[in-house]
Amino acid sequence: xxxxxxxxxxxxxxxxxxxxxxxxxxxxxxxxxxxxxxxxxxxxxxxxxxxxxxxxxxxxxxxxxxxxxxxxxxxxxxxxxxxxxxxxxxxxxxxxxxxxxxxxxxxxxxxxxxxxxxxxxxxxxxxxxxxxxxxxxxxxxxxxxxxxxxxxxxxxxxxxxxxxxxxxxxxxxxxxxxxxxxxxxxxxxxxxxxxxxxxxxxxxxxxxxxxxxxxxxxxxxxxxxxxxxxxxxxxxxxxxxxxxxxxxxxxxxxxxxxxxxxxxxxxxxxxxxxxxxxxxxxxxxxxxxxxxxxxxxxxxxxxxxxxxxxxxxxxxxxxxxxxxxxxxxxxxxxxxxxxxxxxxxxxxxxxxxxxxxxxxxxxxxxxxxxxxxxxxxxxxxxxxxxxxxxx
Length: 391
Fold this sequence. Notes:
By secondary structure, the protein is mainly alpha-helical. It has 13 helices and no strands. The protein is elongated.
């Protein structure tokens, strides 16, 4: 093989190899861009999800912080623990007894226990029939206290007398509902509360209370800053208000300023509407002018045809009228042919169409512009302000 052929063959193969390499590089670059776009989309979605999760977590924490604080304070008022109150809350849900009724019955129970300890006859007799010591009951957590009393009612009081004795303990309005909180229901509620981690200790509840107190301190801080800023900025705000009043008064009143502004806006809008309406009319007039021009051309053609048809007839009739003046000559004039009459009729129709077209052009040109309507809209009468005249 000649050296030249070898070189040419090598160049062709090398060019083919370079073309394939370039294609591969382009595909690789396209794939890289697609991966980058996908990565950005995933990053954006992840960031949005993180923000949403953080917002939801913050909302949940704030809600629980408030709920824990309120329940801890209620436990303190009822002389019991947070865990005991959590057990009773779940037991009330299982038995269909509201927390408000449990709270009212517990207050009545504390009152009756105190009376029994002091030796009041009715309460002392009721706890004696239950076989319970009022002093020992007072030392128990509230859920244990309620479970113990309800168990004693079942064990020691006949069914016929049970409601009366329960009324001495819980109060007449709460007796029936509180008996639904039997020891089994309270025990099951305590088990569920423990499983789901709802049985916070008093120490945990106190931590939440302290955080709430700290947050309320922050609230006092922001409130104090706001009050101090208000006091310091009061003279500035007064000066700004006075300047607004002076400017409005010099402008003739705020109503006048607003009215003038609206009127300028309406005029600007009306100008745009007029421009659009003018363009529309221009096309309408152009169409009518074109039609009139065509009709005028048709009228000219018909007039030429009429002269061609009627011209010889008129000349013959003129000659006949001259001959008729000779003695003994009497010749009838020649009448207009049917073709001539038809041409005259067409001329009359075309002339009527031309007049109608000219009338349309005048109507289009003379009718009010579309922007005149908003300009003629009645404006509110501006108030007359006393003081300095408008500059």
